[in-house]
Amino acid sequence: MSEHGLLVSAPGKVILHGEHAVVHGKAALAVALGLRTFLRLRPGGGERLRIHLPGVGVRREWDVAELSALRGRLTADFDESKSPGVEQLDVLKEFAGIAADASAPDSLAILAFLYMCLAISAKYGDVPSVDIAVWSELPTGAGLGSSAAYAVCLAAALLHACRAISCPLKDGEATARFYFESSRSQGWPEEEMSLINSWAFQGERVIHGNPSGVDNAVGTWGGALRYQSGKITSLKRVPTLRILLTNTKVPRSTKVLVAGVKEKILKFPAIMNPVLDSIDAISQECQSVLEAMPTNPSPEYYPVLEELFDINQHHLNVIGVGHPSLDRLCRVTASHGLHSKLTGAGGGGCGITLLPPDATPLAVEAAKRDLCACGFECWETDIGAPGVTLHSSSALNAEVLHALSES
Ligand SMILES: Nc1ncnc2c1ncn2[C@@H]1O[C@H](COP(=O)(O)OP(=O)(O)OP(=O)(O)O)[C@@H](O)[C@H]1O
Ligand SMILES: C[C@@](O)(CCO)CC(=O)[O-]
Ligand SMILES: [Mg+2]
């Protein structure tokens, strides 16, 4: 690693269909977003490990020797295939001064970092003496996979620092071109990408409790994929879909929402399971339509996609992850002839609106104006972005450096 260090990035995601149902073994369709999380890794000084997370207001540092001793206290084996143990996490919370039931963004971010750092270093070598800074273009906790993008970046950086994966960069190679031109991930061989994905899943487990793995899969592999019970399939063809993202700015926690759905299923299995089956069928139907669409689709394909959005949005309300802000978002876009659904865990956070090719610029602008008038933030972004990427320090542009230097 050069003294300037390395830059790793991973994309956020949009789930088109299948959120929550995917936690219960159903399929989800998800695409990588053109909004990314960046991690800068530099050699540390004085045998210290430092972490700077401006997005969640964290700046912490520890002695490497102290972390090695802590690692020795965590007796259970660390393995990328085993869930983080409750006792292990309790020890880490106590060490970091985090309350036992803490769910604040900074606490979860520190906990995920400590777990991944100790677990990866236990398996592959010494606790590394490095400085890590993470900055994101993604809103935190809004349904766009910020936790997974964070976990994927951490997994790649820590595996790299422990020399558990190769360094795909040659000396002095600029990756900006590589990053912007490559359509799929990039740099690491297939089995190392899988390793990054497995460890990122562990980070997601610390943050979410019971994640399906779809978010870290998209953060790792990028593009557009179908995910079901750990099986990842790239979609045969992804048409150019125009999607409007709207952040209601209503905060929520994926962990709490996922737990709420589980409770509902246990309480009303005969009522809830058919809803999950229906969501699964929606994902299948949507995949068939997407794969039948030409790259630049004509408007005729859209009515089905729009109807699938509407039906799924109702289902998501039924399983208890709607929110009045999301109902409002759907009503506002419907008044301009556009169809929306929540994306990610729901309960607030973001919604997506399909923009068919025959939607007039006037209608789209009017919808955006009305959404902003509700206090929401909306923007259009690219989908199908590349997955986890290693850049040389020359790719650290002024904006990233500025964000990382802010405390
Ligand atoms: N840039 C970041 N730096 C540090 N921690 C982050 C960052 N982004 C996300 N996190 C961690 O992830 C948590 C948010 O995860 P959560 O799963 O609730 O939301 P999300 O991933 O944005 O949405 P969804 O899971 O619905 O897609 C934060 O509370 C924080 O602990
Ligand atoms: C709600 C959920 O389905 C998606 C969160 O982006 C949770 C998960 O799959 O882990
Ligand atoms: Mg998440």
TrEMBL record:
<feature type="domain" description="GHMP kinase N-terminal">
    <location>
        <begin position="117"/>
        <end position="166"/>
    </location>
</feature>
<keyword id="KW-0460">Magnesium</keyword>
<dbReference type="InterPro" id="IPR006204">
    <property type="entry name" value="GHMP_kinase_N_dom"/>
</dbReference>
<keyword id="KW-0067">ATP-binding</keyword>
<dbReference type="InterPro" id="IPR006205">
    <property type="entry name" value="Mev_gal_kin"/>
</dbReference>
<keyword id="KW-0576">Peroxisome</keyword>
<keyword id="KW-0752">Steroid biosynthesis</keyword>
<dbReference type="InterPro" id="IPR014721">
    <property type="entry name" value="Ribsml_uS5_D2-typ_fold_subgr"/>
</dbReference>
<keyword id="KW-0443">Lipid metabolism</keyword>
<keyword id="KW-0479">Metal-binding</keyword>
<comment type="function">
    <text>Catalyzes the phosphorylation of mevalonate to mevalonate 5-phosphate, a key step in isoprenoid and cholesterol biosynthesis.</text>
</comment>
<keyword id="KW-0444">Lipid biosynthesis</keyword>
<dbReference type="InterPro" id="IPR013750">
    <property type="entry name" value="GHMP_kinase_C_dom"/>
</dbReference>
<dbReference type="InterPro" id="IPR020568">
    <property type="entry name" value="Ribosomal_Su5_D2-typ_SF"/>
</dbReference>
<dbReference type="GO" id="GO:0005777">
    <property type="term" value="C:peroxisome"/>
</dbReference>
<dbReference type="Pfam" id="PF00288">
    <property type="entry name" value="GHMP_kinases_N"/>
</dbReference>
<keyword id="KW-0756">Sterol biosynthesis</keyword>
<keyword id="KW-0418">Kinase</keyword>
<keyword id="KW-0753">Steroid metabolism</keyword>
<dbReference type="GO" id="GO:0042802">
    <property type="term" value="F:identical protein binding"/>
</dbReference>
<dbReference type="GO" id="GO:0005524">
    <property type="term" value="F:ATP binding"/>
</dbReference>
<dbReference type="GO" id="GO:0005829">
    <property type="term" value="C:cytosol"/>
</dbReference>
<keyword id="KW-0152">Cholesterol biosynthesis</keyword>
<feature type="domain" description="GHMP kinase C-terminal">
    <location>
        <begin position="308"/>
        <end position="364"/>
    </location>
</feature>
<comment type="pathway">
    <text>Isoprenoid biosynthesis; isopentenyl diphosphate biosynthesis via mevalonate pathway; isopentenyl diphosphate from (R)-mevalonate: step 1/3.</text>
</comment>
<dbReference type="Pfam" id="PF08544">
    <property type="entry name" value="GHMP_kinases_C"/>
</dbReference>
<dbReference type="GO" id="GO:0019287">
    <property type="term" value="P:isopentenyl diphosphate biosynthetic process, mevalonate pathway"/>
</dbReference>
<comment type="subunit">
    <text>Homodimer.</text>
</comment>
<keyword id="KW-0547">Nucleotide-binding</keyword>
<keyword id="KW-0963">Cytoplasm</keyword>
<protein>
    <recommendedName>
        <fullName>Mevalonate kinase</fullName>
        <ecNumber>2.7.1.36</ecNumber>
    </recommendedName>
</protein>
<keyword id="KW-1207">Sterol metabolism</keyword>
<dbReference type="InterPro" id="IPR006203">
    <property type="entry name" value="GHMP_knse_ATP-bd_CS"/>
</dbReference>
<dbReference type="InterPro" id="IPR036554">
    <property type="entry name" value="GHMP_kinase_C_sf"/>
</dbReference>
<comment type="similarity">
    <text>Belongs to the GHMP kinase family. Mevalonate kinase subfamily.</text>
</comment>
<keyword id="KW-0808">Transferase</keyword>
<dbReference type="GO" id="GO:0046872">
    <property type="term" value="F:metal ion binding"/>
</dbReference>
<keyword id="KW-0153">Cholesterol metabolism</keyword>
<dbReference type="GO" id="GO:0050728">
    <property type="term" value="P:negative regulation of inflammatory response"/>
</dbReference>
<dbReference type="GO" id="GO:0004496">
    <property type="term" value="F:mevalonate kinase activity"/>
</dbReference>
<dbReference type="GO" id="GO:0006695">
    <property type="term" value="P:cholesterol biosynthetic process"/>
</dbReference>
